[in-house]
Amino acid sequence: MLLFALTGSVPPIMVLVLLVALYLVWIDVKDEPGLAFLHKAWWFMFVILTHVPGYLVFRVWIAVRRHRRAKEAHPATPGPRGRRGGGRA
What we know:
Number of helices: 3
Shape: elongated
Helix content: 55-70%
Structural class: mainly alpha
Radius of gyration: 22 Å
Number of domains: 1
Mean pLDDT: 83
Largest sheet: none
Distance between the termini: 67 Å
Low-confidence stretches: none
Strand content: under 5%
């Protein structure tokens, strides 16, 4: 979007891509637990300003956030103690 503001022209396909990216951000952020409205608005505005690269950064951030939440939900169990083989030491 910044490039379009500087050049003064916007190809119609880029407007469509921006709208699709904003829709996908809205879909991902609306049901994200524990995310304040300010953070949701920040990501939405970030994607508006940076367009496709901003959306890619958002997707990486949301994937890491969901991965960490899933990892915290399933804590690792401790492994067996001692020697495993059962053979001579």
